[in-house]
């Protein structure tokens, strides 16, 4: 297919996407990652799954000289840009670090791409750019709003930077992917989500409770105006998400333009439904208690995923049962996550 540079390719979504890329024998893949939120041993896992080892450059996307060197050597046809900090709460404590890492890092990357004539980019954005939507089912025509956290604002800023670059040079092809809630793990049990410290997000939290690393789950709020009172989200299996990147990459390379797609399953699932589905596969169900609402949470939203289906020919193939089964398999086989530092 092509020669691809994957920034942040050692991370959760990046590593699953690299596995999909390497599944195409005509695809060359190099990861560039500073390992600030991932471990080098993920490269061994990728190799075990695909029998191929991606190239690896340990570098920071804010280091313009290192990026220029890497792009000059690799000469990629396209960049898939995952590298970034992603914790919403932390971004409120450390806004400048988030702008520096995500926005300044992306700017350095685009400068290096321009310098080396690399004109195709697929970017990891988030449904968080829609803020509080007018309706729970969100199409891409929903306006992008001022971010409701520094993290969200970095995604908005990078989207605008990419749009402006494309407007100034129409030969630059940009595919913005707005993820809903990525969850799950590779079916092999060799790769999955490995957060540092106590997880903030629902699925890794449940997973760690299920293997006894955490005592119980707090369900944040059961008094929302939803059928069971808990929040509703669009949980998308990470392998479906990775395949969405394959479709987006091919579109970006073959039909240069400026695109934005929602990547979600297009259906809402409640926190209670996730917990019930998880408990259905466990011998000893996880314990949970209902706590207060978590500040900033929206009762319900999910993707209108028809644009990606129509234009990319992509749709999700994994259901909630696959999500909980694969998450549990990964966590059980790797209770402490990836080995090494
Ligand atoms: P992750 O933290 O697992 O992966 C990000 C990777 O980028 C890590 O390997 C990290 O070491 C690397 N990185 C961070 N800053 C870097 C820098 N300055 N230079 C080089 N490498 C750097 O996160 P993820 O869940 O795989 O998310 C990937 C992308 O998708 C992020 O941009 C994130 O904001 C976005 N996203 C994630 C979610 C989600 O729920 N996971 C949802 C929406 C959007
Ligand atoms: C969060 C981020 C969002 C980011 C997404 C994916 C916020 C406000 N939003 O989305 O920007 O794109 O992660 O990384 O942080 N829950 C519990 N108990 C827990 C953890 C979560 O009940 O211990 C509930 C939450 O209240 C929410 C649902 O589970 O209703 C999903 O939460 P989470 O996994 O954190 O994702 P989001 O908040 O949807």
Short description:
This protein is an alpha/beta fold and 341 residues long. 39% of the residues lie in helices and 18% in strands. The chain has a domain of 210 residues: Rossmann fold, CATH 3.40.50.
Radius of gyration: 19 Å
Bound molecules: nicotinamide-adenine-dinucleotide, uridine-diphosphate-N-acetylglucosamine
SS summary, helix count: 11
Task: Give me the CATH architecture of the domain at 3-182 and 235-264, please.
Answer: 3-Layer(aba) Sandwich
Name the beta content range: 15-25%
Shape, per Cα inertia axes? globular
The total count of strands amounts to: 15
Strand order across the largest sheet? 3-2-1-4-5-7-12
- Mean pLDDT across all amino acids: 97
Class of the domain at 3-182 and 235-264 in CATH? Alpha Beta
- Name the CATH homologous superfamily of the domain at 3-182 and 235-264: NAD(P)-binding Rossmann-like Domain
Overall structural class, as computed from helix and strand content, comes to alpha/beta
Residues in helices, as a percent range: 25-40%
Q: Which sheet architecture does the biggest sheet show?
A: 7 strands, parallel
Spell out the helices and strands N to C.
EHEHEHEHHEEHEEHEEEHEEHEEHH
CA distance, first residue to last residue: 33 Å
Give start-end ranges of low-pLDDT stretches: none
CATH topology of the domain at 3-182 and 235-264: Rossmann fold
């Amino acid at each position: 297919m092509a020669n691809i540079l994957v920034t942040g390719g050692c991370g959760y979504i990046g590593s699953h996407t690299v596995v999909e890329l390497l599944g195409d024998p005509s695809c060359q893949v190099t990861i560039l990652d500073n390992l600030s939120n991932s471990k080098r041993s993920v490269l061994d896992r990728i190799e075990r799954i695909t029998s191929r080892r991606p190239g690896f450059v340990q570098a920071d996307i804010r280091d313009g000289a290192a990026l220029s060197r890497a792009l000059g050597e690799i000469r990629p046809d396209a960049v898939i840009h995952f590298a970034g900090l992603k914790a919403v709460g932390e971004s409120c404590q450390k806004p400048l670090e988030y702008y520096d890492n995500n926005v300044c890092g992306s700017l350095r990357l685009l400068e290096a791409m321009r310098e080396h004539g690399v004109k195709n980019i697929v970017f990891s954005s988030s449904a968080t750019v829609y803020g509080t939507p007018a309706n729970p089912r969100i199409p891409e025509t929903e306006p992008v709003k001022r971010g409701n956290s520094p993290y969200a604002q970095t995604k908005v800023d990078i989207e605008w930077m990419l749009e402006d670059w494309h407007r100034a040079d129409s030969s630059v092809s940009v595919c913005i992917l707005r993820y809903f809630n990525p969850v799950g793990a590779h079916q092999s049990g060799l790769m999955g989500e490995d957060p540092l410290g106590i997880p903030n997000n629902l699925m890794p939290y449940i997973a760690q409770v299920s293997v006894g690393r955490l005592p119980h789950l707090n369900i944040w709020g059961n008094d929302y105006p939803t059928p069971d009172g808990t929040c509703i989200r669009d949980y998308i299996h990470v392998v479906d998400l990775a395949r969405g990147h394959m479709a987006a990459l091919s579109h970006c390379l073959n039909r240069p333009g400026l695109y934005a797609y929602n990547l979600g399953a297009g259906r809402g699932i409640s926190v209670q439904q996730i917990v019930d589905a998880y408990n259905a596969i466990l011998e000893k169900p996880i314990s949970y208690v209902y706590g207060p609402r978590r500040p900033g949470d929206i009762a319900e939203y999910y993707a209108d995923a028809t644009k990606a289906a129509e234009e990319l020919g992509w749709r999700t193939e994994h259901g909630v049962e696959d999500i909980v089964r694969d998450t549990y398999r990964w966590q059980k086989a790797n209770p402490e996550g990836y080995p090494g530092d």
